[in-house]
């Protein structure tokens, strides 16, 4: 019979053998600067989040984290898929990546099979917006107007197939209203349309319109997440405004190639949590209109799966052709 001491020795030996290769690689990780591939143009909300987190993450890892902008989501994900799986090449993934997987029938990668999801970084709301002097002061007002005047309500959004556009489709479906969704190429075009009342209301990412809200140029009727945004605590959620169950938020995180050693993934997740949880990063994100939100690898993977399923349902209900 094994004594407790012998059992402990055997257990320790097994652990040592199990980490003989992965553990050694983890101890020497990272051995060079990290490349963080971001599928957004410089200056956008996702790019700003990446640069805020990259500096702190690099401090924790002891190597620089270099942000590389590749504003083509499919190409960016493909690049990271084929990178060496050693934790030195990162992909910014999130709700937009999930939406792409829901919208496209053929992609050169499998989002859940070709990547290991490490941790979420931040989450930010979308906002229902109206002109500063509009008579529509709440989501309840918007729904009442649409039902009283079928086909007359115009809802502005970003391009067809974007998170904002599909959020508008989801709102139209759940509210049971007859409304026209009008896509715009840029946020500035959309804000101009709100201010000139070319559209009654619009939906856009909170970080890109927060300065316009603070300036009083446009007014927020509601935020689309499950709870109120701390930086606009007086603004209710869509669910609080009478459309129970409506919830859309945009989020981002970090993924790596699927064969990356577990010990490296664990180290990365730990350092991301430290970076995102630092007071400086948390405040900077809040000022931007986002909230710090680290997670475990399992939590990020589950969120990705849930988002893919949700957007597939929205796409089907809206009869949007898959590409």
From TrEMBL:
It comes from the Bacteria. Keywords: Receptor. It holds the Pfam family TctC. The keyword Magnesium does not apply. Belongs to the UPF0065 (bug) family. This is Tripartite-type tricarboxylate transporter receptor subunit TctC. The lineage of its organism: Bacteria, Pseudomonadati, Pseudomonadota, Betaproteobacteria, Burkholderiales.
């Amino acid at each position: 019979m094994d004594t407790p001491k012998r059992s402990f020795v055997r257990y320790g030996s097994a652990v040592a053998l199990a980490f003989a290769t992965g553990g050694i690689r983890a101890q020497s990780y990272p051995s060079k600067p990290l490349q963080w591939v971001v599928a957004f143009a410089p200056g956008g909300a996702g790019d700003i989040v990446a640069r805020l987190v990259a500096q702190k993450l690099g401090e924790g890892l002891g190597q620089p984290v270099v942000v590389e902008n590749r504003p083509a989501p499919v190409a960016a994900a493909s690049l990271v898929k084929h990178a060496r799986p050693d934790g030195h090449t990162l992909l910014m993934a999130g709700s937009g990546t999930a939406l792409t997987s829901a919208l496209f029938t053929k992609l050169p990668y499998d989002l859940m099979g070709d990547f290991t999801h490490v941790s979420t970084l931040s989450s930010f709301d979308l906002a229902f917006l109206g002109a500063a002097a509009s008579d529509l002061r709440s989501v309840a007002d918007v729904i009442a107007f649409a039902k009283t005047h079928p086909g007359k309500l115009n809802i502005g959004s970003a391009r067809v197939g974007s998170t904002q556009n599909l959020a508008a489709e989801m709102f139209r479906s759940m509210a049971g209203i007859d409304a026209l969704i009008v896509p715009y190429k840029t946020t500035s075009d959309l804000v101009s349309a709100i201010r000139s009342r070319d559209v009654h209301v619009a939906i856009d990412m909170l970080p890109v319109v927060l300065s316009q809200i603070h300036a009083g140029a446009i007014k927020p009727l509601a935020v689309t997440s499950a709870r109120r945004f701390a930086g606009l605590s007086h603004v209710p959620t869509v669910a609080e405004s009478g459309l129970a169950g409506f919830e859309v938020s945009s989020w981002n995180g970090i993924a790596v190639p699927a064969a990356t050693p577990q010990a490296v993934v664990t180290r990365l997740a730990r350092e991301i949590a430290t970076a995102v949880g630092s007071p400086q990063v948390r405040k900077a994100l809040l000022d931007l209109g986002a909230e710090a939100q680290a997670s475990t690898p399992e939590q990020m993977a589950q969120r990705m799966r849930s988002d893919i399923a949700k957007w597939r349902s929205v796409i089907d209900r809206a009869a949007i052709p898959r590409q």
